[in-house]
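Recap from last week: sequence in, structure out.
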Amino acid sequence: MAGYLFQLELPVFTDQIASVVPRHREHINTLFAKGRILSYSVSVNRNFIWCVINAEDEQEAMEMVVSFPLFPYFTDVTCHPLLFHNVLPAAMPGISLN
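Predicted structure tokens:
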């Protein structure tokens, strides 16, 4: 599998978009659990989303983005195939011998 960085642009945040967010977050969390999304970020003014998708090819990655509940609101979608994607591993808590 390969990584694909997507930049997803949204219009001004409205009540209509806000009403789709819970369903969108549930969908994103499902893809995280399946290992299909590796990272997901939203800009503070909610006009950009960046996510790294793990897929067999760019077409499969794009099909995942099209399945996002917020997809109808995206004003621009940009895909960048990645050579690699490194993330800081989650820290393991210290072992307590108590």
